[in-house]
Amino acid sequence: MYGLIGRMLSVDGQRDALIDLMLEGTGDMPGCVSYVVARDPKDPNGIWITEVWDTQEQHLASLKLPAVQATIAKARPIIAGFAERFETEPVLR
Q: Could you write out the DSSP letters of every residue in the chain?
């Protein structure tokens, strides 16, 4: 299993729009076990994205999917930056 937890920052006042975009292009990603987008309660522009994948390769392959590429293109203008990023090895039962 491969896990990724990252914090993304929106431009001022665009966090909810960014969340909507991040959720719109994630419907059919082979190997994705879980994809959770959450508001950062300590930062009005911050969001956390927590992903669980069968393999790291499937995560990397997902970045080339047309729906994911379209989401990235739409979201780019309202992304102010990226903060923390952690790779994990999820344990599921």
A: -EEEEEEEEESTT-HHHHHHHHHHT-S--TTEEEEEEEE-TT-TTEEEEEEEES-HHHHHHHTTSHHHHHHHHHHGGGEEEEEEEEEE-----
* Six token digits for residue 27: 């419907």
**Close Cβ partners of 27 (under 8 Å, ≥ 6 residues apart):** 67
Q: How many residues are given for the chain? A: 93
Residues 47-66 pLDDT 10s? 999 999 999 999 999 999 99
Q: Which residues contact 20 (CB under 8 A, 6 or more apart)?
A: none
| Measured distance CA(69)–CA(59) in Å, rounded | 13
- pTM beyond 0.70: yes
